[in-house]
């Protein structure tokens, strides 16, 4: 990497590249009749059983009609089932079918194998340190009030934040 690349830029590039390889590109190579967005949707449904289409729309940040189209395809392929809620008959809930669970598990298993392979290419102490640091960054970033943080970043303030994020390293 060029010396002018800032740590946040390098981190962002590395994270984006890794997530592309173990996310969308992996799903496309697996030939499962699933798109990367549908895998994300299956993952959310697994984590939030009996969720609604509106909850999916909120989580995926897409309009409800796009979620309906995705659910139609998932249901057509037998990955999900839409049913009336037992608690509130007016509400439709989405559940994974056994086929959906197996497909999602298959994707996640392959991801774990790829990550284990990558970790095995590092020196023995690096994987644990990498994960600990990433967990720490995740905790810090998820604790930010993004709206307030963004509002506090006026153009002059942005330059100061960039300088703090990428201090010039003088060689001794």
Care to describe what's here?
The chain has 172 residues and is mainly alpha-helical. Helix content is 66%, strand content 6%. The protein contains nine helices and two strands; from the N terminus they run αααααββαααα. β1 and β2 form a beta hairpin. The longest helix is centred in the middle third of the chain and has 23 residues, at 98-120. The mean pLDDT is 88.
Give a summary of the structure in a few sentences:
With 172 residues, the chain is mainly alpha-helical. It has 2 domains: 12-121, Winged helix-like DNA-binding domain superfamily/Winged helix DNA-binding domain (Arc Repressor Mutant, subunit A); 124-165, no CATH class. The protein has 9 helices and 2 strands, in the order αααααββαααα.
Outline the secondary-structure elements.
Layout: H1 7-22, H2 24-30, H3 36-47, H4 53-60, H5 64-76, E1 80-84, E2 92-96, H6 98-120, H7 126-142, H8 146-151, H9 155-165
Compute the number of helices: 9
Structural class by helix and strand composition: mainly alpha
The share of residues in extended strands comes to 5-15%
Average pLDDT works out at 88
Q: Cα-atom Rg, whole angstroms?
A: 21 Å
In percent, how helical is the residue content?
55-70%
CATH class of the largest domain: Mainly Alpha
How would you sum up the global shape?
A: globular
CATH topology of the largest domain: Arc Repressor Mutant, subunit A
End-to-end Cα distance, whole Å, is 21 Å
Number of strands: 2
Q: How many strands, what sense, and barrel or not for the largest sheet?
A: 2 strands, antiparallel
Number of domains: 2
The SSE order reads HHHHHEEHHHH
């Amino acid at each position: 990497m060029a010396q002018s690349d800032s740590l946040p830029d390098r981190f962002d590039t590395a994270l984006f590249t890794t997530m592309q390889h173990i996310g969308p590109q992996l799903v496309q190579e697996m030939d499962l009749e699933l798109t990367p967005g549908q895998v994300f949707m299956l993952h959310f449904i697994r984590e939030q059983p009996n969720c609604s289409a509106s909850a999916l729309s909120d989580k995926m940040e897409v309009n409800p009609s796009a979620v309906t189209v995705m659910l139609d395809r998932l249901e057509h392929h037998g990955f999900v089932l839409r049913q009336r809620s037992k608690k509130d008959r007016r509400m439709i809930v989405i559940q994974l079918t056994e086929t959906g669970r197996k497909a999602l598990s298959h994707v996640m298993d392959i991801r774990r194998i790829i990550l284990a392979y990558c970790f095995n290419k590092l020196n023995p102490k690096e994987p644990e340190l990498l994960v600990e640091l990433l967990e720490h960054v995740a905790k810090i970033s998820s604790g930010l009030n993004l709206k307030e943080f963004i509002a506090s970043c006026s153009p002059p303030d942005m330059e100061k934040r960039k300088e703090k994020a990428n201090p010039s390293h003088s060689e001794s």
